[in-house]
Amino acid sequence: MTTTRFAPSPTGYIHVGNLRTALMNFLIARKAGGTFILRIDDTDPERSKEEYVDAIKQDLDWLGLHWDRVERQSERLDRYAEAAEKLRGMGRFYEAFETPTELDLKRKKQLNMGKPPVYDRAALSLSEEEKARLREERGNGVWRFKLDHERIEWQDGILGETSIDAASVSDPVLIRGDGLVLYTLASVVDDTEMGVTHVVRGSDHVTNTATQIQIIEALGGTVPQFAHHSLLTGPQGESLSKRLGTLSLRDLRAQGVEPMALLSLMARLGSADPVELRTSMDELIEGFDITRFGAAPTKFDMTDLFPMTARLLHERAYEEVQDEIAAIGVPADLGERFWTVTRDNITTLNDLPAWWAMFRDGAEPVIDDEDRDFVAQAMELLPEGPYDDTTWGEWTNRVKDATGRKGKGLFMPLRKALTGQSHGPDMSQVLPLLQNIRAKG
To answer: How far apart are CA 437 and CA 441, in angstroms?
Structure first.
């Protein structure tokens, strides 16, 4: 069975870069009728916060990316310890004691000599006595996985044939000196034991994948199918890394972005297929093909989300938004008319309160000097409410007969006087919603 996972660290809010990974893994699992695991990478107790665990779940729920089960890495520390012991017994795990300063000096020397800055495995030549002395002086060392220096190859779902020479990579640190299990070991053990068959993640993980393949094989696991998607950039090709905090899913939600607008964009962005607005998750699943994505950096422009959101809302039935409309104070008997009148004139649902405020309280009239007398005369002819769909036509005919005005010269000054705007919904629909007409007074 196809099994995928999304493994966020609960150290902050999910942003659009995380979403790309989550969505691809979700769609692969759902298209194959498989399992999608939400795996919380919370092995670091100092940085992990429960509020972010809750936030991750809320954000995924909002998008409709529902998981089949949740796993917590903090509850699996015994499994990582067992795997570490197995690697020690195989001679693939060794303790190293260099300080960050010493490692930095080694890297600089290697670079000056024109060599790749790879860990020199000096720790492998330490005697037990030397290790004991270093532990006494410096505390416990880090534990590194000893790579076989051979070319590591795999068929990447996006990049195609991919290979990395393990000799050009440092033996990865899997456990810190303070005993903290790092991502690489925890991820390998989890993927192996949870039967993960497909791993989709960012192209910044390619080197990490090479080392993980060797660790998986050393532990006797089955190597999943890897795919590395391109990284997002800003609309001008600039790095998004400094802006990701402002592109969190909850910030986009607060700005009124609709889930299917965001998912429709992210499910195609960076692929050979055009972005198409979808209205259901089933459509997204059906149209997803990981092989259509490319390796080139992918431009993400947040402003693309707003016209897509507007298009979704323009097609939305009143029953789908009546709770939101009631929440801003629109009486139930006016709710459906209010939505019919406003939905083609909003970009997000966040625009609705301003519309209701205008209908409820009246707009500040906009009256040009040359229209002042005309508007005053027209207002004298406006009957007392309540108004219906015929009132606008009957009133403007009366005004036309009294003033001789017609066309734009008749309708535009009246629209601006009643709504404070030069454009908007059909006035025959607007007039019955107006609770207060300031231009009359």
So the answer is: 8
How many structural domains are present in the chain? 3
CA–CA dist 50, 39 (Å, integer): 14
Indicate which CATH number applies to the domain containing 287: 3.40.50.620
3-state SS of the chain: helix, strand, coil percent to 5?
A: 50, 15, 35
* The predicted structure's pLDDT at residue 239: 79
Q: Is residue 204 in a domain?
A: no
Distance between start and end Cα atoms, the chain: 71
Taking the whole predicted model, whether its pTM rises above 0.85 is answered as yes
Nearest to 305 by CA among 343, 341, 251: 251
Examine the fold and report which residue of 175, 207, 222 is the final residue of a domain before the chain moves on: 175
**What pLDDT, on a 0 to 100 scale, did the predictor assign at position 237?**
84
Residue 169, number of CB atoms within 10 A of its CB? 19
Residue numbers of the domain that contains 309: 1-70+230-315
Rg for the chain (alpha carbons), in Å? Answer: 31
Q: Which residues of the chain have pLDDT under 50?
A: none
Q: Tokens 């607007």 — which residue?
A: 430
